[in-house]
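Re: that backbone. Tokens:
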């Protein structure tokens, strides 16, 4: 019996592995035995001061992290808000990004994954990790005994994704990366708008873009669950879009 497709799952800013896993409960259940999703915590614990006004229930809900408890200070891992990096108000710096890369390097060294699936900041991290596995020597600290910790991924899924800020991200992506990448955007997403996503789309050489009618979340209606299941099982297959194409999608094809 063939081994299941193993997917590394990276949560969004202010979420954690437990929150992200619960949010994707319907998707996980639809995967069957052929696809295994492995959820990991970002190494950076967020304190109320880090959230810069996002600690209100409404703000956390907008980030897909209403379950997070900003006063837990890490005492309850299931509700502790986490991140892959902290940023400045201008969103031009990624504090802690290097530490997160080394954290993920060690995870990759211990096991093999077919691909990676990220949401929001986790999508930005997923794409960066994907590009880094294509050119691991571009960031020597990522290497272990001079070698990459893991082969390149077969696919990347970036939901509400964007290009991580900073020089490390720019140097890693270069002009483009080639791993097949599914980009999923919400037409009513006010957190990661289309313009912000375009920077990542521009460096994604083998991209597929799908859009949904909602906002800042992973779409989980039945048609999307079926689409994700089929894509993860066969990212190079001919899989019908879950929703009609939009002008933004068509413009990227031109």
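Recovered sequence:
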């Amino acid at each position: 019996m063939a081994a299941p497709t193993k997917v590394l799952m990276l949560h969004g800013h202010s979420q954690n592995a437990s929150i992200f896993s619960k949010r994707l409960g319907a998707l996980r259940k639809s995967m069957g035995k052929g696809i295994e999703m492995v959820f990991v915590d970002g190494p950076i614990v967020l304190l109320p001061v880090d959230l810069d006004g996002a600690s209100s229930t409404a703000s956390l809900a907008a980030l897909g992290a209403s379950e997070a408890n900003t006063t837990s200070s890490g005492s309850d891992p299931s509700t502790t808000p986490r991140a892959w990096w902290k940023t400045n108000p201008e969103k031009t710096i990624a504090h802690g990004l290097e530490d997160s890369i080394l954290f993920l390097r060690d995870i990759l060294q211990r096991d093999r994954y077919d691909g990676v699936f990220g949401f929001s900041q986790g999508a930005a991290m997923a794409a960066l990790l994907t590009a880094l596995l294509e050119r691991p020597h571009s960031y020597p600290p990522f290497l272990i005994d001079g070698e990459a910790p893991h082969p390149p991924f077969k696919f990347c899924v970036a939901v509400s994704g964007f290009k991580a800020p900073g020089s490390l991200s720019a140097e890693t992506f270069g002009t483009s990366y080639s791993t097949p990448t599914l980009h999923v955007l919400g037409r009513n997403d006010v957190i990661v708008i289309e313009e912000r996503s375009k920077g990542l789309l521009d460096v994604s050489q083998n991209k597929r873009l799908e859009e949904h009618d909602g906002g800042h979340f992973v779409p989980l209606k039945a048609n999307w669950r079926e689409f994700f299941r089929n894509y993860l099982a066969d990212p190079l297959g001919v899989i019908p879009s879950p929703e009609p194409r939009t002008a933004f999608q068509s413009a990227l094809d031109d």
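Strands lie at 5-10, 35-40, 44-45, 82-83, 86-87, 94-95, 115-119, 155-159, 181-186, 207-212. The chain has a mean pLDDT of 91.
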